Amino acid sequence: MRDTLTSLRYRYWPDHLLGEILSKRWTETAIPVILLLIVGFALSRSIDHFLSPSSLADTARQAGEIGFIGLGMALVVIVGGIDLSVGSIFALTDFCALYLLDVLNWPVPAVVVATLACGALLGAVNGVLIGYLRLRAFITTLITLIIYRSAFDLLIQRYSNSIAAAFPDIPSWNFIGGGDVFGIPSVALVYIAIAIFGHIFMTRLRPGWHITAIGGSRRSAYNSGIPVRRTIALCYVASGALTSIAALFFAARLGTVGGDIGVGLEVIVLTATVLGGITLGGGKGSVAKSLVGVLIVLLITNGLTTLNARGGINRMALAGILLVAAMVDIRWQKNRTRIISKVYVAPTYHALPPPPATEIGRGGPFEQNDKLRDVELIGLGRIEAPEDVILDRHNNLYAGSRHGDIMRFFAPDYQRMEVFAHIGGQPLGMAFDRQDNLYVCIGGMGLYRIKPDGTVEKATDETNRSMHSVNDDSRLRLADDLDITDDGLIFFSEATVRYEMDEWPIDGLEARGNGRIICYDTKTGATHTALRGLKFPNGICVASDGRSILFAETFGCSIKRLWFAGPKKGQVEVVMDNLPGYPDNINLASDGNYWLALVGMRSPSLDLAWKMPGFRRRMAKRVPVDEWLFPNINTGCVVKFNEQGKILESFWDLRGENHPMITSMREHRGYLYLGGIMNNRIGRYKLENADPNFVQYDKRWGKAS
Fold it and tell me: Within this chain, do residues 543 and 668 fall inside the same structural domain, yes or no?
């Protein structure tokens, strides 16, 4: 009774939702938006007409001007830098625009182009010093702040009277400063257009990805071939150009070159950047976050001004907010993993019956033997982590490598090998289709297709998102094994929707139903989720009936059947529910039965711990990962079973000299080929009484023409 109650509690109690919320990127935008709404509501209740149309129009003009500078600052911060000179650049470009227009009488288009060039040039100085000469961004932009401000002070001493005396009445200039379209200020329209382009640039274009990658890790970006120095320099150029756009609208609106222009602007923009959720550490940020931060700061400053707060109080309030926001940002980034690990890892109750005996002398279908003692070794020391192995119609052998390659060993002796295709991720399950295209599940990337000439194409890397899930589970995190039906449907397992490939032990610690089976239609290109709630689903094999698939639940120690066609469509049946080890890949045998790899054997300690969610939770919090209780993956075996789940034969390597861990096996022309994700070799075992002409794909689809 106690076990039943505990099982119900940990099955339905949503104790992992807080961790999912904290760990997702959309919350980093949601929190600033909530803060914006709170500030706006509080000020609207305290100040009459604070959100009136005229007040909102004025706020939109200010938001547009400061928003341009905020976009530039966001770009610089995302790439891993900072720009303290934006206030001085703003002042200088404001002077440039008014001097060219009022003193030199340049036409408005020429003024606009020259002002943008001036801002880009001032930003380029920072870019060269920081990007190419690799000076510290903080001290460099602090120095240029002083230099640019000094230059501005010298210029206005000489030309301020000339600028103030001129009052040009130019319609196009007036439209820039105070015009609108259907009540929307011109500055807001231009900002919206640039913001949309900025969003597309950062999220859909390769240069935007390069910026984020550099902010995340400059060394990794450099090793990946990204032009780090040039990209950083161009970000500062863009920041200067965006600041000059803001100065143009400001100059057209007010037409002044007062000595306090741009003073403290860097504090305002930095505060907006941090409040919007753009981390000062670089590598994270968006246009939406920049806009939200600007609106929060403007509402606060305008509210304090309306409440007759002195300028000193305004600046002090912004500085205090910046201090608190920066402290929270820095401390959160430093302790984020630790905080999330305390609430995100949510073990559940998981009870398994006592495993069947495997010891020598105990009898039974799983009794240990030494049949794999003299297995022939292929590619010893020349391949690493061949998780799955497969052979083509010409008897060539293929296996994945942890270096992101598909290796091909040539028949008949498999001594000569080559890189068949480079993918970049860890290849896991593999299967050929009728046209000899090799489909591969790649951890962290999805399902890919390799043509016979070695060309790599993406098949799918996402599926439909479940509407009831807090976690965005549309991206494929750990595509594992696959098989292809006669109609071109590819069923493949995704072991977990919560963790990445290198975090699979955490999924085992939780023992939740975090996995699912995905279906990809090669004819339409559509992808959908066929089955959810599985405990680390792994091996997939189309059954001999052609209307169902067999799949392995690794941490459930079971084999199940999913019907995808026929009268039982959608039903799930248990084939084997109490294996002595953790099942991995499944493949057809020449006699119509099935081969199954047990990647490791169960241990009494982990079986007991799976019944104690509280113990596993404390272990995750207090014990280093390398000291956790892990599934025993040092000893494995291969078994043959039939449609009814009866074990027909088992194959062991008692001393673990050749294959201590077996993740896959493939029968081909009388031999059994063995793979293991932690091995540095492929095994080849001669089968007795096996069909020497058996080729899996020839048997299913006939010989290729």
Answer: yes
Q: Is 310 in the same domain as 388?
A: no
Write out the two tokens for 404. Answer: 């992101």
Query: Same domain, yes or no, for 338 and 384?
Result: no
Q: What is the pLDDT of residues 496-529, one digit of tens each?
A: 998 888 888 888 888 989 999 999 999 999 999 9
Element (H, E) at 661: none
Mark whether 645 and 527 lie in a shared domain.
yes
- How many residues does the structure list for the chain? 705
Per-residue model confidence as pLDDT tens digits over 84-102:
999 999 999 999 999 999 9
If pLDDT is split at 50, 70 and 90, which confidence band does 343 have?
low
Long-range contacts of 129-133 (CB under 8 A, 24+ apart): 130/81, 130/232, 130/233, 130/236, 131/228, 131/229, 131/230, 131/231, 131/232, 131/233, 131/234, 131/235, 131/236, 132/229, 132/233
Percent of the chain with pLDDT strictly greater than 70: 89
CA distances from 151 to 92, 126, 146, 226, 531 (A): 8, 16, 9, 36, 67
Question: CATH number for the domain including 306?
Answer: 1.10.3470
Residue 12's pLDDT is 37
pTM passes above 0.70:
no
**Rounded mean pLDDT of 477-492?**
95
CATH of residue 667's domain is 2.120.10.30
- Based on the fold, state whether residues 331 and 400 are members of the same structural domain: no
Residues 6+ apart with CB under 8 A from 558: 552, 574, 575, 576, 577, 578, 579, 583
